[in-house]
Structures are given as C-alpha cells and as structure tokens.
Design a protein that fits this description.
The chain has about 325 residues and is α+β, with helices and mostly antiparallel strands. Helix content is about 30%, strand content about 20%. The termini are far apart.
Length: about 325
C-alpha cells in the first residue's frame, strides 16, 4: 500500500488570501506603495465558512486558523493514513460536511478517516497528473484519490483517459444563477445586464473551471456571441471582469468586499451563502437561457481503498444523500429513458 507522505511542512504560510488574488496581481503590476495595517474587517466574511464542520478528523490538535492568511479552505481532514480520499469539484464544498457525517453514521468504522479536497475539477486533474502531489504556500503533500467527482462529461473523459475506472455514476443536477450583493446595488436584472459598461464581474476561469463553459453557453443564449465576448474577452481586458482561481469561494468574497457587482455561479452556491447569513442574494436565470449540469463520480484508477470508494459512489445516489443535496437546490438525477 502506498504511504501518504509529507515532504515539506511549514504551516505558517500555507495559504495566501483567497479573496485578494485579483488585487494582488494588480498591485504587482502597479507597484505596492502602501503599508501593512491591522485588518479592519469581519473575520467571518473569509473562508473557511463552516467553523470546522468540514473537517472530519476526530482529534484535531491545535486549532490555528487565521482568516485571509492561513486557512487551507479546500482541504479537509487528516492526511495521516486516511481510509477514503475524495477529490470533488468544489461546486458543493458546503454539502460535504453533512454528506460525510451521514456516511459515517451509516459506516461508523470509517469515522474520522476521510480526507477530501474541493478544488476546481481542472486543478484536481492537474494534481493527479503531477503524481497526486500538490503544494500550497510552503506545504507539499502527496495523497492518492479513491474517488473523483465532477461534471458527467468530465468524469467520462477521465475514464477514457485512464485516470478513472468506469462506470461514471451520475447523482444530482444543478442550474446557474446570477450571484449579487444583497440589495442589488448595481440594479442587475438579467444576463444581458452583465455586458453593460461599468458592471464589474467575478467569473470562473475557463482554463480549469468547467462551469465557465456552461456560463458561456448561457451568455450566448441570452445575448448571442456579442454578450459572450463582452463578458469573457472585452471586460477581461479592460479589468471589469475578474477571472477567479477558486470560483465557488472568490465570487461571494469579491461581492462582500465591494470588488464586484455580480458573478454567475451555480444556484446551490448562492443558496448556501444566503443560508450562512452573508449579504448575498441571486437573480434566477430563465430556463431558456439556463444551463444544467449533471454531477457524477467514479472510482479512481489504482484506488488504495476500492471498497470505501465504491460505497461512497453508491451513497451519493441514496435517499439520505439526495435529501442533503436538496437543501441547497440540487435535484436528483434521473436517467432520460
């Protein structure tokens, strides 16, 4: 059995600010002439947002979490001999805590032995292609996934590429929405409004976030190629569109910091933000302009824990799991027959 390894462990600089990447790049271009100051913000605005609930480890030791500086928000659990390792596209990071708790209730022998990552699907693939090794800040670790979950097309593609074992097992669907700050100060009503001059956007990066392609399809439906080009080309070049690194966390951060007016996300992400009490709202996208995603999972090739991997894949289609997904606006997948 391959042993989980850590090659570098300097935790004090493990993770840079997730909410200020766009600003950091701008500062690097312009030259930074400011000074360090005591933060003047509400810590609860910054991830992780679930107050430790997304860490399935039983014995957590010293809790050293500094919002905006040291938080490692997309890595959950202990890398010390886990019995189930899940790589899941971050579109439902917020649902993983109750899902894991329900799975542990059904299989108590695995309690505290689950590790999972909720990075964008494309970044997870790059991690797998780099020998399952990732570096965040000054920390590098290697961990082999047992399960990979993302969009159905992506999962089928990775099966074809030999990174996953078939079959792909679909379980829920999700629709897009326009995420806005509470009160809608920019008075946005439709997707077409996103193309207006002066409307600042936070949009997922097409290079590693599959949702970007689905958003582009919806923009094309609503306003043709001109709207798609405006949002994903013209506004990117003039600075009115920020392309995110971790879309499911950065868009609400940018909105709450006043750095953006709107961003297209999955409906479930907006629902989670509202349930968390954050000053976030959303504008529904009509069915004729919307795009639906189908989420699926599959066992990873060479999984070290194939029994638990198969149990997790099957669990995602169970009534218990589907009930959890429905809290955030997901819908159960039904085969079109």
């Amino acid at each position: 059995m391959k042993k989980t390894t850590i090659t570098r462990m300097t935790l004090l600089a493990a993770c840079t600010s997730m909410g200020l990447w766009g600003m950091t790049a701008h500062a690097a271009d312009m030259g930074w002439h400011g000074k360090a100051e005591v933060p003047r913000y509400q810590e609860q605005v910054f991830p992780p947002w679930q107050h430790g609930a997304n860490n399935p480890t039983v014995k957590k030791g010293l809790n050293f979490t500094v919002p905006e500086v040291d938080d490692l928000a997309d890595f959950h659990g202990s890398i010390d001999h886990p019995q189930l390792v899940i790589f899941v596209g971050g579109n439902y990071f917020f649902a993983m805590a109750p899902l894991v708790a329900a799975f542990e209730k059904e299989y108590p022998e695995i309690k505290g032995k689950i590790y999972y990552e909720t990075l964008p699907p494309g970044i997870l693939i790059r991690q797998m292609q780099q020998g399952n090794t990732i570096t965040v800040g000054n920390m590098t670790w290697t961990i082999q996934p047992d399960v990979y979950a993302a969009g159905l097309k992506k999962v089928n593609y990775l099966i074809h590429q030999g990174l996953l074992q078939g079959p792909a097992v679909p379980y829920v669907t999700n629709d897009l929405t326009i995420m806005i700050a509470k009160g809608n100060p920019a008075h946005i009503e439709t997707l077409r409004d996103l193309g207006k001059p002066g409307i600042r956007l936070s949009m997922p990066d097409p290079r590693w976030e599959g949702v970007a392609r689905q958003i582009q399809i919806s923009l094309h439906k609503a306003g043709g190629p001109a709207l798609e080009r405006m949002v994903y080309d013209t506004k990117v070049k003039n600075g009115e569109t920020i392309l995110t690194h971790v879309h499911h966390r950065q868009t609400p951060l940018f909105l709450m910091q006043g750095l953006a007016d709107a961003g297209v996300t999955w409906k479930s992400e907006a629902i989670f933000q509202e349930q968390s009490g954050h000053p976030i709202s959303n504008i529904p996208i009509p069915a004729k302009d919307n795009t639906t995603a189908i989420y699926a999972s599959a066992v990873a090739k060479g999984a070290l824990h194939p029994k638990w991997a198969k149990d997790w894949v099957n669990f995602l289609r169970s009534p218990v799991a589907l009930h959890i997904f429905e809290r955030y606006g997901f819908k159960a997948y039904h085969d079109a027959k």
